[in-house]
Amino acid sequence: MQNQEELQIIFNRLKKLLKKYEGPLEPMFDVKNKYNLWSCKDLEINGKKRDKISFATLIIQSNYVCFYFMPIYTDSNLKDLIDDNLVKLLKGKSCFHIQTLNDNLEKQIAKALNAGFKIYKKKGWI
Fold first, then answer.
1. Helix (H) or strand (E) holding 59
2. What letters, b where the CB count within 10 A reaches 16 and e where it falls short, cover 71-86?
3. Most buried by CB count within 10 Å: which residue of 32, 63, 69, 83?
4. Which of 30, 27, 18, 25 is nearest to 110 (CA)?
């Protein structure tokens, strides 16, 4: 079980990866224990008009860092591009529970973020 200090380190490392996408994506929350990125533009997804769509969110929970990654929810093929070690951490449709973060897992998350960003861009959501 991780303590809050260790979880904060994981959160900060993942936040650094996500911050690379600021500019085209906008944070709605940027506080000590929650950070997220949204694409803010007029969209139509499955016939519904929207003015924004979530890309990714980090939230520190009591025993892990939640990494919500919406591209994996909106495009199921993305799961095939992600390393099995990362897929094992997926709980539900789009939430990864990160309890430890080594360099390999960090690289896999960076790769997933890049692939997800490309998918959103291809769909015209960014």
1. strand 53-60
2. bbbbbeebeeebeeeb
3. 69
4. 18
39, with CB counted inside 10 A (0-12, 13-18, 19+), is buried
Predicted confidence (pLDDT) per residue in 74-109, tens digit: 888 888 888 888 999 999 889 999 999 999 999 999
Query: Where residue 108 sits, what CATH number does that domain have?
Result: 3.90.1150
97, 105 contact by CB (below 8 A): no
Domain count, the chain: 1
Q: Are 51 and 41 in contact (CB under 8 A)?
A: yes
What type of residue is 13?
R
Domain that holds residue 88: 4-122
Reported pTM: 0.92
Degrees (nearest 5) of the Cα angle 107, 11, 42? 85
Which contiguous run of DSSP H or E holds residue 108?
helix 103-122
